[in-house]
Amino acid sequence: MQPRISMIVAVANNLVIGSGNELAWHIRDDLRRFRMMTEGKTIIVGRLTFEQLKNAYESRGKPLPDRKQIILTKNTEYQVGLPKCYVCHSLEEALVKAKEIESDEVFVAGGAAIFAQALPFVSRIYMTKVELEVEGDAFFPKYSDFSKVLSEESKEENGIKFRYLILERV
Ligand SMILES: NC(=O)c1ccc[n+]([C@@H]2O[C@H](COP(=O)([O-])OP(=O)(O)OC[C@H]3O[C@@H](n4cnc5c(N)ncnc54)[C@H](OP(=O)(O)O)[C@@H]3O)[C@@H](O)[C@H]2O)c1
How many CB atoms lie within 10 A of CB 16? Predict the structure, then answer.
């Protein structure tokens, strides 16, 4: 069976998703949700986001968690040397690889470059809508086609309001 191709993202009201190759906020509940949703599944990430995630886990002395990772880079020499990690050199190649290794759900997980290119290929977005206007240098693309709300849950952590939305293309 073909896997669903989805996106998972946390985005501010002004479409900011990151600043200086970091997230622009710290919401523990959202990080937990990301881990829970993608565990045992496959994620597609750009090289910069992959390195950010890897450094975050390694700095806590933990191995990379249990999920298959497809890393996009133009660099044909780039090697990862970790289990369940696959390096691809184009989005098309990444999507073919994802369908080969995943039967359930593939999550395009950023960053900005990858979200922008992959949006036409996804049918669902798991969005954490962060009720902030923040400065940043990485943005999520406009997603007005995704106006069907499958579910919505409001949350708050350390004074930051956010909503978990599951959106589908109409
Ligand atoms: N809020 C969220 O949910 C979320 C999630 C993830 C990331 N982020 C944020 O997003 C920012 C990073 O985004 P970014 O756009 O700078 O970096 P990125 O998308 O993580 O990675 C960009 C890199 O991916 C590779 N790449 C891009 N398109 C490619 C293609 N078509 N074929 C092959 N390789 C390709 C290139 O690697 P090479 O240079 O090696 O060729 C490029 O430099 C950070 O601020 C991060 O915190 C936010």
Answer: 23
Closest by CA to 107, choosing from 1, 4, 7, is 7
Residue 1 CA to ligand 1 center (angstroms) comes to 29
Domains detected in the chain: 4-168 (3.40.430.10)
User: What is the three-state SS of 35-49?
Assistant: HHHHCCCEEEEEHHH
Specify the length of the chain in residues.
170
Q: Global pTM?
A: 0.97
Measuring from atom 44 of ligand 1, which residue has the nearest CA? 21
What is the best residue among 34, 44, 47, 128 to mutate for testing ligand 1's pocket, by most ligand atoms within 8 Å of CB?
47
pLDDT bin (cut points 50, 70, 90) of residue 5 is very high
92 CB near ligand 1 (under 6 Å): no
Q: Which of 90, 85, 17 is nearest to 57 (CA)?
A: 85
Q: What is the pLDDT of residues 133-158, one digit of tens each?
A: 999 999 999 999 999 999 999 999 99
- Report the DSSP beta bridge partners of residue 43: 69, 107
Contact of 7 with 118, CB cutoff 8 Å:
yes
Averaged pLDDT for residues 24-45? 95
